[in-house]
Each structure stands twice: as C-alpha cells, then as structure tokens.
C-alpha cells in the first residue's frame, strides 16, 4: 500500500480453528500499524472465544438470523468506509457479507483458492502460494498491506478469572495433565472410543492426570462416556462444563493434548501446549496444529493415493478424502509411540 491504512476490516466468520489462525495475523498487523483501527466481522460462537481481544472491535454476524444478519451488517456500516477489507473466507455467506462492508480496497484469496463466487466480491488478491497451511494463507493478507509476519505468535484474551476457573476444574490433577479432546465436528473424523481409552491408560501409567474436554452436544457427551467406560484408569470428565475461554484456560494448563481435526487443537497451539493431531480426511500440512505438525499421526496421504491415484502435490491442494472408517486405520501403537516421543522431546 502507498500509505499505512488507518482503518482495517477483517472478514472471517468461522470456524474456531480458523479464527485462532487469524488472531496471529491480526496481531501482526497491530504490531506494524499500531495506530490503525481494526474491526473484525465474526461468527457468534467464535466471538465468545475472542471477546476482549485488545484493540479489536467485533461485529457479530449471526448466520442463524438469515437475511436479517446481512441487513444488520449493512446498517452497522452504513456511515463508515474502511481503508481496506481483508476478505479471508470464501464461503458464500461470507462473500455475500462482503457486499455489506464499504471499503476502498477489498482484498481476497488468489484465483486458485477462490470459490462460491468469491472473485465477484473482491478487487485485489493475495499472492498465490505453494502448498500453504491455512495460517500461511492468512499471513499473505497481512503481507498484502505491507506487514511482515513470518513467525506467528498469539496473545489470547484469557483473563485471570478464566484461568482460576480452569484451575478449579483441574484441582484434582497433578502437575502433568493429559487432555483428550476427542470429538471433531463430524463423527467420522473421531478416533475410536476404545483407542482413546488405551491412550488414557498409557498416559496414566506414565504419571499423567487424564482429562476429557468437549462441548455439550449429545455426540460429545456419548463419546466421553464410552471412553470412560472402556478405560481402566481415572479420567476427569469436563465435557459440557467449560465455556470457550475456560476451555482455553484448561488447554493452557495442560501438558499435552490429543485431538482429531477440531478447534481445540488449534486453541492449544495459541497457548503453546503441544498437540498430537489425528488426521485421516484432511491434509495435516494444510489444517494440522501449526506449531506441532511434526507430532501428527495421519493416514490421509495413503488414502488420498488409494482413492485418487495421485499424491497431494499432484492434486488440488487441500483435497479431502472420503470414508466413514478411515480413522480406524490409525493404530494405538502409532499414537502411543508418538505420545512417548512428544513426552521426551518436550521434556514433559
């Protein structure tokens, strides 16, 4: 840009993992342009996690409101015009929301990652990248406005009160806490309850207190009950007992986290807690826990080759593989070996 922007709008509505990636980029922008005002259009649930992020005005877009959500957005911004809109989501509802945000410059994804009419709602594009992680894609939005942001870092909006609530929930734990966050948004991306239970037993045998976390959905509550029923060790069940900020506090105090492709894995990254990621359907090099990609146990690449006959490098980046039983291919032995490796590497 020819001069530093004075007002910046971020458009990234969802999901939890993606907004965690975006925080690092927003804070890099704040570091280089401390005088710029930043407004972030965000989803309702995601705003609960990021509320009170320093120096950011949040405007909530509640997709459940339907057309009224767009009308509200238009009304909010009717007398404003941003220097730049960083349009960081290609979903159609986000593309349509971009129409309601006045900005001198609207920057979107490169052509290779544009879909659902994204190209119609932007005037400029970020530079194309070769095999980027989602976070690295977001970083190119910052670079497009002159920001250096090669090494991500996070200052998450967690208060002393949230951390104290987390401490109370972990009061019966020792100082080595192993958190299992077993549920992804789709059941097919979850590992088997019996295998989570075996990892819990292994961690307990190595002197860790074991905790299960999750939201108050029937699927998550049922999965937690199954894990506890199979495990021959004590497990503290926090499923449905933590708001997002308190969950962040629990993850911050944990020594190690085990999770499939789910938001809490990325939340843990923001507070520098090591994560063992379990991946079968999506490429962990694109969506894995960013700082801990070496700790991923995956069967994605072999399934992609079997289904498509080509490697990830030969196909459109980020292509998913399909199948309801793919996660069963990840063995207990593989994850136990990774657990022991991480404990040694991180000196836990």
What is the total domain count? 2
Strand order of the largest sheet: 3-2-1-4-5-6
Strands, count: 12
Q: Any idea of the CATH class of the largest domain?
A: Alpha Beta
Q: Could you name the CATH homologous superfamily of the largest domain?
A: Glycogen Phosphorylase B
Radius of gyration: 21 Å
Largest sheet: 6 strands, parallel
Mean pLDDT: 97
The dominant shape is globular
The proportion of strand residues reads 15-25%
Order of helices and strands: EHEHEHEHEEHHEHEHEHEHEHEHH
CATH topology of the largest domain: Rossmann fold
Q: Calculate the terminal CA-CA distance, rounded to whole Å.
A: 45 Å
Low-confidence stretches: none
Structural class: alpha/beta
Q: Tell me the helix content.
A: 25-40%
The DSSP helix count reads 13
The CATH architecture of the largest domain can be named as 3-Layer(aba) Sandwich
What does the model show?
It is a single chain. By secondary structure, the protein is α/β, with parallel strands linked by helices. The protein folds into two domains: 7-144, Rossmann fold (3-Layer(aba) Sandwich), CATH 3.40.50; 160-345, 3-Layer(aba) Sandwich (Rossmann fold), CATH 3.40.50.2000. The chain has 13 helices and twelve strands. The chain has helices at 16-32, 44-50, 67-76, 92-98, 134-144, 160-169, 193-205, 218-230, 244-253, 263-270, 284-287, 300-308, 332-345; strands spanning 7-11, 37-43, 56-61, 82-87, 103-108, 124-125, 177-180, 209-212, 235-237, 256-259, 275-279, 297-298. Strand 4, helix 4 (92-98) and strand 5 form a beta-alpha-beta unit. The longest helix has 17 residues, at 16-32. The termini are far apart. The mean pLDDT is 97. Belongs to the glycosyltransferase 9 family. Keywords: Glycosyltransferase, Transferase. This is ADP-heptose--LPS heptosyltransferase I.
